[in-house]
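A quick aside before the break. I want you to see a complete sequence-to-structure record at least once, exactly as it would be stored in a machine-readable document. Don't worry about memorizing anything.
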Amino acid sequence: MNKKIRSDEVTHLFEAILTLENEEECYQFFEDLCTVNELLSLAQRYEVAKMLRNKNTYMDIAGKTGASTATISRVNRSLNYGNDGYDMVFGRVDSENEANVEADE
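That is the input. The structure line, written in tokens, reads:
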């Protein structure tokens, strides 16, 4: 992980996030923590990453998400050369979705 972001303050934030138990608690905490634009920007980057993972074009991604090509490029660089955080989360989400489908059958 990037040593520039490692600090007691960031650790405390992550510890707080890890205490959240459900989606409603996430909404409550993140609405207090972030401005609307900050939260929407984070959500936009996540959607961009999902679309890049699914091999969508920059043009399609920009059209659907409203993200700039600079944002799309930055997310793409993280997907390709980052710390594999997106891949870790996508793998877990995929596994959870598969388990939910199996439970519904």
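Two observations worth writing down. The helical segments are 8-17, 23-33, 36-53, 58-65, 69-81, 85-104. The two ends are 40 Å apart (CA to CA). We'll return to this after the break.
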